[in-house]
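pasting for ref. prot 1 ->
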Amino acid sequence: MPDPPPGVPLSRRTWALLRPLDPYRSVKAALGWLVIVSVGITTVLILMAYRSDIELQVIAIIAIIASLLVTQFVAHSLAAPLLEMTAASRAMARGDYGRRVHVARRDELGDLADAFNRMAADLQAVDRHRKELVANVSHELRTPIAGLRAVLENVVDGVSEADPQTMATALRQTERLGRLVEQLLDLSRLENGVVPLSPRRFQVEPYLSAVLDGAHMALGRGHSRTDVRLRLDVTPGLHAHADPERLDQVVTNLVDNAVKHSPRDGTVTVLARPGIAADSLVLEVLDEGPGIPPAQRDLVFERFGRGTNGVTQRDGGTGLGLAIARWAVDLHGGTIGVAESIRGCRIRLTLPGNSQVKG
């Protein structure tokens, strides 16, 4: 057992040194005290037998009964939490993750009960997320499939002609379905760590200009928000060390999310500044929309997490874009979050230098 720190008061240091002897803080001490008490009872009764007229056989029987009672009491106190954990484990095997163990002990069994409860809570959270994932995926898949089916049924029934406009509507639904499937695959690969990073040093301004050019083209290919302007503000001569493909995925998701929630004729600004370390990057994406309440700022980075502005849902998409962005940034060893902003929403990500990139 490690010695207590020197600054701890003498009383606490003494109590810490005596902890192995405390029957309420150690199972080993409890068993040791059981043996001591049993031997003590037997010794006292034998001494009483020598000084009285009680026969030794009677004293032996009384000593055995007393020792058995003490042993039964200690054994029950030690076995009760194990039995409760066994019952809770069987309930969890049947899918009931709400069971908890109520053990008011300070020894190793108490520590085991606390660890068991934490494990049960984690499993309950994982099970809840799994159910939410299935429900959300089902909902998101059903929407484009239903739209595509309606268009095709109208064409088959003769309600509408298979003209370019009708086919464009069907194509948009198919593209939405394809984006969802691609995002699910990307998120699965990122979570499992099977996406390798190929970091390299590159100039930030031409790189982000190309990314925003692609976003401009997306706005012109039937994006619902063609009125939003994109603006780039980069420190001249800025370099970064990262995986351009993964960073492209992050910036594209952030810009697309900002465009969706910008007001009419709004502006989305992409800022890039050097970080503290060499080749590090601080990148921000700002919109002029309603913003994200502080209580919702962690939720939007969860799978299918959707922040709200108090009136309507903030995210009208699949709810996977920011989750993918977070995982890609985590692979680089960086951070991403919602920063304070006077107006709209400001997403800030930081990427460290090449020494921090995760393989």
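and prot 2 ->
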Amino acid sequence: MGGTGNMLTIGAFARACRLSPKALRLYDELELLRPARVDPDSGYRYYAVAQLERARLVAWLRRLGMPLAGIREVCALEPAAATREIRAFWARVEAETAVRRDLAGFLVDHLAAVSAAPGKDTTMLELRYAAHSDRGLVRPSNQDTAYAGTRLLAVADGFGPAGAPASGAAVEALRFLDTEEVPAGNVLNLLEEAVRGATDAVRDVADPGENGTTLTALLWTGSKLALVHIGDSRAYLLRDGGLFRITHDHSVVQSLIDEGRLTPEEAGSHPQRAMLLKALTTAAPDLKLHDTRRGDRYLLCSDGLTAVVPEHRIRELLTANPDPEEAVRSLVDAANEAGGPDNISCVVADVV
């Protein structure tokens, strides 16, 4: 029987690493943190001082909320690889938290609207809008579709041999929303059902194995905008002179940026910069509800604009052209002046 003079009892070890004895016994059973020695007679656990660093790492990762399976993987990695995995885990946590935050905000707004006194005076706002889609200077055809109406704004960027029919079918399937009165309290449910119809429409006209489309659309209720988004087309808000992106790209390079494995500057030249992680027929889209203000300007665009025109230039052009038609034309011209390597679609809408 070996001695225990240089070891810590389970109680002392628990105090040193801030894990409870109960947690240490669990991690022993899961083979995540085995004691250095177990007394064969009493079954009492003893730990080496050198095990404190791993135990503290386990404790910190548990405080982050990482599942035990993930902790086991991180503990088996070298420090540099472990750092990347922790960053990737936290990026996922933040994304999931953002979705729950948006849902909570929607529920608060919805319940507040339900409880509001009937007949309450509401200042109704309107949209002033323009849309334009351009083939660009390199592509043989235009696979983008852009649409703007009194209630619906949409941009879809098709890909594959049947990319143009795919993007057209997606937007066409939503166009009925432009003529329907949309109650703010039910707008996300209505939009979600419409997107299911758009997904079916794309599958009807294009083989999902080779073809697909992004979709970024805003549905106007008269006081709010509901957003549906999937892929790497984008929506921006110009408010008080600042330009804010309100969508998150579902692309390989964006996931690498989120995980800290790629900088935004490196993303522009990455060989997989056009590769999508999600498209309309492969995954569920993001759904959000946005409060609007008089004077807000929204931009929806395909990546034919954002891949070649930097955001500071987009902000300048949106600010310098007060008329939506002039704004969309100036954005398309800027993309073509930068080489026009892809189709370019822009929708600009002002809240007035």
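The chain has a mean pLDDT of 88.
The longest helix spans residues 79-115.
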